[in-house]
Every structure is written in C-alpha cells, then in structure tokens.
C-alpha cells in the first residue's frame, strides 16, 4: 500500500493537472494553494478553526497529512506548532519542503507513520485534524484509540467521515466512545458528495490527459476509484466529527 501512496504523491506533485481538476470541481470553495487532494474545502477549514480551540504556541497533529497543506495552513492561521504523519515518505518529504513557505523554521516536523502506531508519547498534542484518512485504517477503533492516547485531556480531534444516509447515530458514536472520546459536535457537510461527483466525472472525461501527465498506473487508479464511487455518492452522508478527550475527572 505504501508504494502506491508514494507513487500517488510523486506523480501528482509533478503536474498541475490534478489540482486544476480539483479546483474546477470544487469551484470557489476550493482552497487554492493547499493542494490537499481531499474533500477539504473552505467550509471545512472554517469548521476546523472553530472546533479545535487551539491557542498560539500549542501543538497540532495533522494525522494523514499528505503533502501538508491543511495542517500548514491551520498552523499558520492559528499560530501553533505542527507535527504531521503520513504513511508515505514521499508525502512527508513534500510537506517538509512546503513548510518553508508557510511557517518559520522549527515550527513544523513530519514523520512517516500510520494512525495505528503514532511515534509520539502520551498526551503529546493539544489538537488533531484527520481529513479523509480514518477510512483507510485497518482497525478504525484502534486508530481512534491511538489518536486519543496522544491527545491531551480536554483536547479536540476533528475527523472527517462518510457514512450511508440510513446509518444510525449509534453506529457513528459507539466507536468514538469505545476509543475514550466524547462526541462534542457533528457537523454535516452537504456539499461534499456533489463535489466528489463533479471531480470523478472530470477524471473520466480527462482520461487521455491524465494518462499523459501521470502515466497509466496512476490514471488507472484514479479512474477505478471514479467508476467505483460514482454510483455510491447519492447515498453518501459526509460529516466532520469533533471528538473531545475528557479530563481526568471526567468533566
């Protein structure tokens, strides 16, 4: 899997085509300059700023940082320090390179790791963002427990998640509780499925350009994802969950 993610980040870093298609699909909501290659839009960035409750100088973890855009933007805006992890060494190298544009030296560091094995001590960070990554964890509850482990008491983790429309609330909340979190807020993201639909259709209609820019292997991955996901989008409910780690006395 790691080799696939390495090739994914390397190929997309070498062309502006993919960013252009994301911008076309997301329109004015696209956060230009962040190159997130995720469902992140301006509305989600606003939600992250509001829900994290971070103060200048505190430490933010971007879990599944990719090439770093979301975490770097948040750290610059909130005046925090930043650590990021990603399964791909290529992604973390790109993120470290981009950090020079966003932050002063020493305010950001990136590590190759997975959600299931974070290379940080207990209660190390003040806040966490995890955008479009939890779904890739082999054991989501274990990944949530690991995020809870490194978060300080009363700290927040904001995680994006997609479920089916008929998914009961208990099915969303139970893994959160099992991991030791409280579900503080559940923000709906009603614009997200339509944006993905536009993006996937653009990938399909630009197949020739994608193959020319990225090569057949990466183009095939993207096209397979598009054809697989398009029929499922009408039943997709996109959420941003704000999870709070309780304080020691449970308050």
TrEMBL record:
GO function terms (MF aspect): methyltransferase activity
InterPro entries per the UniProt record, alphabetical: Methyltransf_25, SAM-dependent_MTases_sf
Keywords: Methyltransferase, Transferase
Residues of the Methyltransferase domain: 61-155
EC number: 2.1.1.-
Superkingdom per UniProt: Bacteria
A Pfam family it matches: Methyltransf_25
An example Gene Ontology biological process: methylation
Keyword Transcription in annotation: no
Name of this protein: Class I SAM-dependent methyltransferase
């Amino acid at each position: 899997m790691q080799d696939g993610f390495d090739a994914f980040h390397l190929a997309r870093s070498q062309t502006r085509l993919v960013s252009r298609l994301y911008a076309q699909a997301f329109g004015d909501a696209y956060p230009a300059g962040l190159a997130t290659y995720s469902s992140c839009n301006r509305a989600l960035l606003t939600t992250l700023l509001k829900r994290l409750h971070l103060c200048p100088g505190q430490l933010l973890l971007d879990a599944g940082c990719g090439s770093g855009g979301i975490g770097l933007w948040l750290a610059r805006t909130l005046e925090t320090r930043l650590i990021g992890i990603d399964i791909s060494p290529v992604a973390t190298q790109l993120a470290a390179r981009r950090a020079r544009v966003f932050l002063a030296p020493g305010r950001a560091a990136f590590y190759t790791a997975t959600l299931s094995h974070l290379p940080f001590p207990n209660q190390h960070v003040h806040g966490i963002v995890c955008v479009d990554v939890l779904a890739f964890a082999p054991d989501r509850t274990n990944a949530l427990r690991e995020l809870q482990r490194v978060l300080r008491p009363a700290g927040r983790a904001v995680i994006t998640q997609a479920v089916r429309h008929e998914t009961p609330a208990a099915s969303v909340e139970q893994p959160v509780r099992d991991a030791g979190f409280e579900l503080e807020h559940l923000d709906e993201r009603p614009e997200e499925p339509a944006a993905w639909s536009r993006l996937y259709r653009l990938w399909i209609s630009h197949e020739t350009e994608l193959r020319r820019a990225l090569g057949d292997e990466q183009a095939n991955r993207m096209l397979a994802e598009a054809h697989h996901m398009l029929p499922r989008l009408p039943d997709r409910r996109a959420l941003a969950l704000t999870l709070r780690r309780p304080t020691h006395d449970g308050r």
